[in-house]
Specification:
The chain contains 22 helices and eight strands. The protein is of the alpha+beta class and 474 residues long.
Length: 474
Amino acid sequence: MALELRQQLKLSQQLVMTPQLQQAIKLLQLSRLELMETVQQELLENPFLEESPESLVPADATEKAELRSEAQEGYDKELASNADWEDYLGDFSSTTKQVASRETEIPEEGSSFEARLSSRPSLDGHLFWQLTLSRVTERQQGIGEIIIGNIGSNGYLHASVQEMAEMAGAEVEEVEEMLHRVQRFDPVGVAARSPQECLLVQIEVLGYDRDPVLVELVRDHLEDLEKRRYKPLCRKFRINMDDLREYLELIQTLDPMPGASFGTSEPHYVAPDVFVHKYDGEFVIILNDDGLPSLQLSDIIDTLPQVSGPDKDYFQEKMRSASWLIKSLHQRQRTLYKVMESIVKYQRGFFEEGVTALKPLILKDIADDIGMHESTVSRITTSKYVATPHGIFELKFFFNSAIGMDDGSSVGSESVKALIKQLISEENSKRPLSDERIGEILKEKLQLNIARRTVAKYRTAMDIPSSSKRKSAF
């Protein structure tokens, strides 16, 4: 079969996401700090953007405003013809790529000078500093560095003495001797190989090792203490429950995780995007614009009619970008306000009474109420926080599944979690409530159908131990 060239006409339709639309969608899902960083970056790169002054506009600026309005009118028409914001958000439901994590963040306003400039000390750095100040030989210092290098973030040793001896080219006795010294560095008990060893080192340093009962309790009976097997221990050591309680209180003052205070994770500070206040019986929604500059077109537009050639193309592109950014920011804030207004309407019980009055809610409910697509609601509620009369919550918190009740109505899963937590906090510690009993109480008081395994799932999600571990003999 011979090869040949042919011409063919084909008519098709496709949706194209322009860079401007990509930027608009990206702005929707940015957190407040990320948005401030993005706006500041645009202010640096785009000559047509500037912060609007706080003072009133002077009378002689009228001409410039008119010129600015005429120049922008053409660009607004072009933007309107390219794409429609509401239609785009209504038709596109695919999630764009998540915003890449940033190595630096804008420091929160009002943070202390030390918080902005000083770095948080690490566990290995703290130990190396003590090793350097210790009176050790060069060989011992090398062994100490290997020991410190094998300590995990929780403060425990992750290598055996034999392995460290091979690394250092030293005898096992030399490593044991240096390990003994490192374990008595601050924090005391670091580089331990087990919880028992960690606590025993602390008991020795504090001078409590003269009590043989305390030493044996820690060395051989930590598991019995954890499972609250108190009576056999009292019989074995011939002590009463009051004496055992004193030993328990003393053991609880020790630190089984000596490296926890030097955790590598940095704290995350939350700045609310929205404030909800109650005033005159109604809830008022206020967007948090603190630190977010108000943008306007720069005076450089006055020179635009006099520019021609490649410079004019550059100016036109930057002008379009500036105009779209201002419009996108305004649309983002308007969408955030509408979503928050709808949440307050659906979850008014929460804002009045608290978490126990939280109702079931899904994205589609809010989307239908404000006339937008679910994907838009999902993006605008990502990494956004609201300050309420009951604390600061992420907007995603208000969306929770429903649990059916006997009368046919439903209650939110977060409300059920709050009720379970409340019941456990009010229980008798000597006779803690079982998961099955909690389910029975919820059925009696709220006519709520909830299985024992569901109670256990919610309890585990809240990091609450089982009834056997909550039981106290004192």
